[in-house]
Amino acid sequence: MNTKDYRRRLDTFISCLPEEEREEAISFYTETIADRMDEGATETEAVASIASPEEAAMAILSAKISEMGGPNERTLEDTLILEGLVDAYDELASDDVSAEKSRGFLERLKDRHLSPLEWVAIILTSPLWLSLLVTAAALALALVIVVFAIYLVAWTLIGCVWVVGGAFVVSSPCALLFALWGMQIGNGPYALVNAGYTLFLFGAGVWILRGAYALTRAFLVWQRKNIVIKVEGFGRSRRAKGINIDAEREEPADAQGAAPSLESQPDSVETAEQHAEESASQRTWQMLFKVCLFLLAGGIACVLVAFIASGFDWRIFITSLYTEGNVYLGGMLVATPERLLFSPYWFLGR
Amino acid sequence: MDAQLKRGFLDACVLATMAQGETYGYQIIKDMPDLIGISESTLYPLLKRLETRGFIKVRKAEHNGRLRKYYSLTETGRAFLADFLSDRNEIDAVFGFVEQATRAM
Fold first, then answer.
1. How far from B97 is each of A303, B4, B89, B91, B102, CA to CA, in Å?
2. Inter-chain contact B26–A36, Cβ cutoff 8 Å?
3. Sequence-separated (6 or more) residues with CB below 8 Å from residue B15
4. Is residue A259 part of a domain?
5. Cα(A56)–Cα(A231) distance, rounded to whole angstroms?
6. What domain count does chain A have?
7. Which of A21, A70, A318, B15 is the most buried (most CB within 10 A)?
C-alpha cells in the first residue's frame, strides 16, 4: 500500500466526519509516513510500519465518541452524529481489523510481483479460467437483470393502480353527460343508471387512488430500508471476531446505550408541534374519503334501483353512439342526436 | 506496564517530549520511553485532546517542501507537568502502602 492508498482508505473509513477533521487526521498520518521516508524507509515500509487505516480510523472515531458530552448535554443533532460515529466504528470493529484480509483481491495482486512462470501458467490456463470468468460475469449480469425486472414489474403494477384510479375519476364526468342525455330523451332508467355510474366512478376512483398512494409509500419505505442498505453492505460480508484495540472501548458502548433514551424526548416535542398542522389537512382528506364512500354506495344503489324500475331490462346499460348510423341510448333510438347536449354529432355535421 | 496505569502516564510523557522546545509527530513517537511506547493511532487523538484542553499549541511550518505540524507547551501544559511531578510523593505513598501490606503475603 502506498501513501495514496492509505489516504484513500482512511478517508473512506472516517467519511462520517466533517471534511476539515478528515483532512487534519489524514495529514497527520501522511506526515509521519513522509518523516519515516526522510529517514530512509521506502514508501511501502513506511506505510507498513504505522497503524493500518482501519486501526487509525477506529482510534479517531472512538476518541470522537468519548469526546461527545453525556446524554443530557447533547442536542438531537449531536445524537445523530454520535449514532453515525458509533455505526462507523461498529462496522470497522466487526470487519476484520487486519488490513490484509479486508483488502481487495486486485489490490493485493497489484502489490505482488508475478514471476514469469506464473505469467505463463496464467496465460496457458486462460481457456479454462477465462470461460469460467465469462460465465460468472454472465450469470451475475442475468441476476442483476432479473432483480431489476422484478423491481420494474412491481413499479409497473403500482403505476397500473394509479392509472385505473385516474381513469375512474376522469370517466365519471362522461357518465354524467350520458345521464343528462338520458334525461333529455326522457329515458329515466338510463339516466339513473348513468347517474349511478357517475357517483360510483368518482367514489371508487378516489379510493383506488388512495390505495395507490398507500402502496407507493409503502414500497418506497420498503425500498429505502432494504434495497439501499443491501447495496451498501454488499462488500462487507467478511466478519471476524476478537478485535483488540487499546482505545476506550467501553465508552462507545456506553454512549450507544444512552442514545435511545435521549431520542424519545425531542421526537415527542416535534410531533406535538406538527400535530395541529397535520390533523387539519388530514381531517379534510378523511372527510373526502368518507364522502366518496357514500358516493360509491349511492352509485351502486342508483344502478340497482334503475334496473328494478326498468323491469330488469338489460338494454338500459347500453350506450351506443353509432349503430348503423343511429344513436341508441338505453335501448331508445335518438331521432335527433345533434340536439343532445355537447353532442359529437354537432361536429360530425349529420 | 498495565494498560490502565499506562494511560494515565501517557499525557505526561507526551507533554514531557515538548519540554525542550517544539517537536513534531514522528519525533514524539521516537522520543517516548520504551516502557510507555505509543503508536500514531494513539498519539493523534491524544494530541487533539491536549490541544483542546489548552496544554499545547500547534503551528504549521514548511519542511522539505511539505507542511509539518509542530507542537509546543503552553503555560497550562507546563503547570500540568509541574502538578504531575508534585504528585510523586502521593504515588510513592500509595506504592509504600501496597508494598507494606503485601510483605506478609
1. 101, 20, 12, 10, 9
2. yes
3. B50, B55, B56, B73, B77, B80, B81
4. no
5. 26
6. 1
7. B15
Residue position matching grid coordinates 455505526: A87
Residues of B in contact with A59 (CB under 8 A): 41-42, 44-45
Which candidate in A6, A26, A32 is best for mutational testing of the B interface (most B CBs within 10 A)?
A: A32
User: ipTM score of the complex?
Assistant: 0.85
Q: How far apart are CA A202 and CA A271, in angstroms?
A: 34
Report pLDDT for A335: 82
d(CA B1, nearest CA chain A) in Å: 13
Nearest 10 degrees: CA dihedral of A190, A195, A201, A204?
Answer: -120
Tally of domains within chain B: 1
- Kindly list the residues from chain A whose CB atom is less than 8 angstroms away from the CB atom of residue B44: 25, 28-29, 56, 59-60, 63
Residue A68 lies in a domain: yes
Written as tens digits, the pLDDT of chain A (350 aa) is: 788 888 888 888 888 888 888 888 888 998 888 888 888 888 888 888 888 888 888 888 888 887 776 666 666 667 777 777 777 777 777 765 444 445 566 666 666 677 888 888 888 888 898 999 999 999 999 999 999 999 999 999 999 999 999 999 999 999 999 999 999 998 999 999 999 999 999 999 999 999 999 999 999 888 877 765 555 555 444 333 333 334 334 444 444 444 444 444 444 455 555 666 677 888 889 999 999 999 999 999 999 999 999 899 898 998 888 777 788 888 888 888 888 888 877 766 54
Q: Where are the beta strands (DSSP E) in B11-54?
A: 23-24
Determine how many CB atoms are found less than 10 A away from the CB of residue A88: 21
Torsion angle, alpha carbons of A103, A106, A110, A115, to 10: 120
Task: Report the distance separating Cα A190 and Cα A331, nearest Å.
Answer: 9
Domain that holds residue A44: 3-112
Q: Do A31 and B41 touch (CB under 8 A)?
A: no
Residue span of the structural domain in which B49 resides: 3-103
E strand or H helix at B42:
helix B40-52
Whether residue A91 lies inside any domain: the answer is: yes
User: CATH code at B15?
Assistant: 1.10.10.10
pTM: 0.44
| Kind of pairing between the strands at B56-63 and A332-334 | unpaired
